[in-house]
Amino acid sequence: MNKIIPISLAVGISILIVVIGVNSLNFEPVPPVSQQDLRIMIDEWMNSSDRNDLEPRLEIMKAYYTFEESGQKLSDDQEGRVMLNQIRKMISFDIPKMELDQIKAEIRNDLREMGFNPKE
Predict the structure, then answer these.
(1) Does residue 70 lie within any of the structural domains?
(2) Its domain of life (predicted)?
């Protein structure tokens, strides 16, 4: 019986050391939006009956800014270039640049709070 307590205590201390060690390492957080997520959002919008509705396009733009500000880039192939053109065309003429810049700044702050180091 006495031997079980020290072993349990040793196991508990070992687990605590591992947890503290893992938490002290600087792991990059998992990006909140992937290129595949963007592709799905764009495809849903493209198949929508009301493509002129600003709200879904604005959500795609926010998702793209989140993707971009979390340090990711669209793939450097035809799919990535087509997606970038679709994103730019769906929003660029309907929302003033100042409003888009404000959205990007808010996303940058949100990402900082999540542990990302967004580009400036």
Answers:
(1) yes
(2) Archaea
